[in-house]
Amino acid sequence: MIRYLLTKILEALIAVWGVLTIVFFVTRIIGDPAALLLPLGASAEQIDALNAQLGLDRPLIEQYITYIGQVFQGDFGQSFQFGRPAMQVVLERMPATLELSTAAIILGTLIGAVAGSIAALKKGTMAELIVMIFALLGQATPVFWLGIMLILFFAVDLGWVPTGGYGTISHLILPAVTLAVFVCSSIARLLRSNLLDVLKEDYVRTARAKGLMPRTIFIWHVGRNALIPVVTMIGIITGELLGGSVVTETVFAWPGVGRLIIQAIEAKDFPVIQAGVALIAFIFVLINLAIDLLYGLLDPRIRERR
Amino acid sequence: MSAPLLEVRNLSVVFDTPAGTVHAVNDVSYTLHDGETLGIVGESGSGKSVHALSMVGLVPCPPGRIVSGEVLFEGRDLLKMPERDLCQLRGGRIGFVFQDPMTSLNPVLTVERQLMEPLLRHRNLSRSQAKSRAVELLELVGIPHAKERIRQYPHQFSGGMRQRVMIAIGIACDPKLLIADEATTALDVTVQAQVLDLVRDLKKRFGTTVIWITHDMGVVAGLADTVQVMYGGRIMERGPVGPIFKTPRSAYTWGLLRSLPHGEARTQRRLYQIPGQPPNLLDSQQGDPFAPRNEFATPRCFHEVPPLVQVPDSTSGHLVAAWYDLPMALRARQEKPA
Amino acid sequence: MKPFFSALFRSKAGLFGWIILIVFVAVAIAAPWLGLPNPIRGSLTARLAPPTWTGLFSPGPHPFGTDQLGRDILSRIVFGSRTTLLIACGAVVLGGIVGVTLGIIAGYFRGFVDSLLMRLVDIQLALPLMLLALLVVAAVGPSTTNLVIVLALTSWIRYARIVRGQVLAVREREFVLSAKAIGASTARIMFSHILPNILTPALVVATLELARVIIMDAALSFIGLGVQPPAPSWGRMLADGRTYISGAWWIVTFPGLAIVLTVLSVNLVGDWLRDYFDPRQRSVR
């Protein structure tokens, strides 16, 4: 188990480093920030001066080394727009993003787990058909469009909740439900097919041959085994939620990191883009690390293999 | 003789599949006495496993369906029993050992947990009592270092050891009846012999009644009191081990015995193979299911099902379902020069 | 393998998916000859006109209404589907070629090449795909070609992983071993023995990826990083329509429905293909 843990941590570190490198090289190709920050018609000398000030005139590799060195101290440079440390700007927006993602994951997983179990246990009934149709539609619906439609109905027409913004529970409901629909569709489909597979396993027959109560069998023998792939799925979905936050937060005017990144891209504010993407990737890596460890706990065979 | 422990009467089981109805078990009747060991032999698809599983509600329905029959266990009909009561019996009075312990044990639970489950369910034991009983059971089935190994997971055991764990689970609550379904099939010959020794030992010590389901006549010879040969969902022949092996009356039993490697066959002849394919149980059967593969079949075999009847002038309990007379047919063939 | 059409008619969902998909593709191809209004130039007199239907089967001049510049929504959806399908198919094919090639190389040679490639996959997977796409499009600019490349970049991983796994399994099978034993060259073994065995899983991945890429393309154009106006694109139409959401519900509704139907049909076709090629996974449905 210790060895499994160390391997996973090492892999996570390499992944973070890789992401930082990708982010660095990609952002440095984006147009000329000095030209953007200075008023139109600024002279070449002015541009050079600003580039020098921002350190953008030095060779790329030198910039990279400085960047990596600074990044490990949490320093992503000053935001061009806000004139404050980029990481600070991003961290201020992080709680909103985490709040929304966590609410969506919890809500979506619970609904998805119940719906998936019903679909598997009531196989061949109307209940299964309804769950499966909703899950298929949920997977085919882009989150941002669903968000717009829900805003149209519940905020614009009915006026039950605000159209966007942040602060109270009523602001959270609509975006959280929108994302939860996406989460629960994937979970319901996966869980259903896993459950159907596990129900056919020999060890479930063994459990029945022991005369165990149906509830015990479902929780300990069927559910436990069917949940293992779902755990991985939650990791993947978290990545999609965090990445998708750039779009959903825009739809709901949710002041999280995603919306900040979009604003930073429009303003060509590199340090903020870098810090934002790096932070999201870092959180994603942490979540995946946690999931790998959980996986190891749930499935003893994994622990041994690596 | 005392009242039988298990009495199966006219049990028929079918499976509804998209291709049609499969008649897996057809009109099977037999009795099993306290302390007896019954070996049920047949190829895959002979209905030997399905009939045993269907008795205690372990055949998934659908697609399975019990069409008719009674299964009296200690005088109560298992097929009419509510699921709750059946649950009480399974793992308690009736223990199971399944084939392929790799897939029959839950990979993500410790052996300890899987062993304790039936104990906690059927015995009024505290957790710590169940725990120490579980260790005892592992020691009983011959697993060394039981105290340490019990905390391990199935994949950390070897095939033979896993089968021993399976047996420990099956006998955990001192069942009256132990049903073992191909319990040694997945094992090496040496390991198989060890497991069989273990079962013989357990029988002697606890007087357990055993139904041993296998396709291997050799295993049955060393273990069973009574042999029951099944084919196409029917009992073809049934009787005490001695007479069945010495003078088989069913051509199918005769074929199974001839395909065993022993005596002169081992060195001189190619192993005998029963010609043809196992029956297609999709069609509703006409006649003796084995007739198409039977070189001794008479015309009657093809359109009338032979009843299972006492073999004339033989040990009591030797029953056969055949229209032909096998010993006579064999004698006739020897007299005729090839 | 089951006959294609009888297997198709047995699955209602698969049939539904195929029909919708074929209709969409046919309409997209035939768009210029359908007599639709100009999708780019509208008439300002017809601004924000609601959908007009005089009867169930007799739509008015703007069956889905018009947008804030008086352009016909239906026409923009149809012409937008051309862009979407072009970009999505391009990305899936490009990603497929790259992913399959790298997957074969990794699986066949194993060792250093394999671990390097798989490490690269891990790193890329640590960056949510949407962020990667966003970063790169922001950097290189949102042209059609760039979008294809960027979306392919988010797509190759899935092919590479599946194909690598398949190759690892196939290369140990008897027929490859025996081909080796009779002295077949590496390239020959790969193309004549391994490729046929990985094409079906790759095709299934391709359909599922197509659905994902369509959504991602819409998302990118929704945040302004897709095909640039005035060219019609579904995501952009949604973004523009948001401003008028309180008065003109039709601008955001219909392009979204188009996305849902397309993605749904592609998903259904993908599920059906998986079942068709691999009956063992039947229970997954």
Structural class by helix and strand composition of chain C = mainly alpha
The CATH architecture of the largest domain in chain A is Orthogonal Bundle
CATH topology of chain C: MetI-like fold
Beta-strand content bin of chain C: under 5%
N- to C-terminal separation of chain A?
9 Å
Q: Which topology of the largest domain in chain A does CATH recognise?
A: MetI-like fold
Residue-averaged pLDDT of chain A: 84
Main beta sheet of chain C: strand number and arrangement? 2 strands, antiparallel
Portion in helices of chain A: over 70%
What's the CATH C level of chain C?
Answer: Mainly Alpha
Oligomer: heterotrimer
Q: Could you give a short account of the major beta sheet of chain A?
A: none
Approximate shape of chain C: elongated
Count of individual beta strands of chain C: 2
Keywords (chain B): ATP-binding, Cell membrane, Membrane, Nucleotide-binding, Transport
Subcellular location (chain B): Cell inner membrane
Membrane topology (chain B): Peripheral membrane protein
GO molecular function, one term (chain B): ATP hydrolysis activity
Produce a short descriptive summary.
Chain A is mainly alpha-helical. Chain A is built from 13 helices and no strands. In chain A, helix 7 crosses helix 8 (169-199) and helix 7 packs across helix 10.
SSE blueprint and pairings:
The complex is a heterotrimer of chains A (about 300), B (about 350) and C (about 280).
Chain A: H1 2-27, H2 33-37, H3 44-54, H4 60-71, H5 86-121, H6 126-140, H7 143-157, H8 169-199, H9 202-209, H10 214-251, H11 257-267, H12 270-298, H13 300-305
Chain B: E1 6-17, E2 20-32, E3 37-41, H1 48-55, E4 64-73, E5 76-77, H2 83-89, E6 94-97, H3 101-104, H4 111-122, H5 127-140, H6 146-149, H7 159-171, E7 177-181, H8 189-206, E8 209-214, H9 217-223, E9 226-231, E10 234-240, H10 241-246, H11 251-258, H12 263-267, E11 309-310, E12 319-320, H13 326-335
Parallel strand pairs in B: 3-8, 3-9, 6-7, 7-8
Antiparallel strand pairs in B: 1-2, 1-4, 4-5, 9-10, 10-12, 11-12
Helix pairs in contact in B: 4-5, 5-7
Chain C: H1 4-10, H2 12-30, E1 53-55, E2 58-59, H3 73-109, H4 111-126, H5 129-140, H6 144-170, H7 174-181, H8 186-222, H9 234-242, H10 249-277
Antiparallel strand pairs in C: 1-2
Helix pairs in contact in C: 2-3, 2-10, 3-4, 3-6, 3-8, 5-6, 6-8, 7-8, 8-9, 8-10, 9-10
